[in-house]
Design brief:
alpha+beta; Glutaredoxin; six-stranded mixed sheet
């Protein structure tokens, strides 16, 4: 099942807390929670998303705001791994496209190391192996989470969407549980949870509005 804005935020489904944790969202009711979702093989996550989350952490950590990191994997499963997440957090080393892109932009220290550390808790999203054959219920859960106003489509278009989703799920070895439960569209993404534990919104990409959203939730 997927969660919509305005509903209670479900617990993050984490296979490993690599840094900090274990974390339960219930422990932080009464505080604003920001979850920065990224992939280790995602240059934009390290150029935009994570630095913005770090700035938010530094600015608001003493003002009732909790910032968490969640590494996920919806592609490049050979690179977006728990092992590479540990390499990132324990040795500040990046891999793959992140390494190539940040090296080209001179944003790394020697030996492919990040020029900054991630100061907040970080966990690895739980990955579940897709079971074949793909059931109709699974297909429709994915469709409803990712296709806006699916019920308004003509039947021919619905059938095409269902067919494409079925083919996609059949070739995808794993599904990231938290990523899909929160209906995220890609990385970097940010999850905002208010003081009452309600999911207020999710944002895809680096909008530069993280602090604005946090200020709004703090004022409530």
């Amino acid at each position: 099942m997927t969660v919509k804005a305005g509903s209670p935020a479900p617990e993050l489904k984490v296979s490993n807390w690599v840094q900090g944790g274990p974390i339960s969202l219930k422990d932080y009711q009464g505080r604003v929670i920001v979850v920065e979702v990224f992939q280790v093989n995602c240059p934009g996550c390290f150029i935009y998303g994570i630095p913005e989350a770090i700035d938010t952490y530094q600015k608001y950590k003493d003002n009732g705001v909790v910032v968490l990191g969640l590494a996920t994997a919806f592609e490049d499963f050979d690179k977006n791994t728990l092992e590479n997440l540990k390499l990132l957090l324990q040795e500040s080393k990046v891999i793959g496209e992140t390494l190539t892109n940040l090296s080209y932009q001179n944003k790394l220290l020697n030996e492919g190391k990040l020029s900054y550390n991630i100061p907040f808790p970080v966990g690895m999203d739980m990955l579940l192996k897709e079971r074949l054959p793909i059931e109709g219920k699974r297909i429709m859960e994915f469709v409803n989470a990712n296709v806006l106003d699916f019920d308004l489509y003509h039947q021919k278009d619905k059938d095409q969407i269902i067919s494409r989703v079925k083919s996609y799920l059949e070739t995808k070895p794993y599904s990231p549980v938290t990523f899909e439960e929160y209906s995220l569209k890609g990385t970097p993404s940010t999850i905002f949870i208010d003081k009452k534990g309600i999911l207020r919104e999710t944002a895809f990409g680096s909008t530069g509005l993280m602090a604005t959203t946090v200020e709004k939730l703090l004022s409530e």
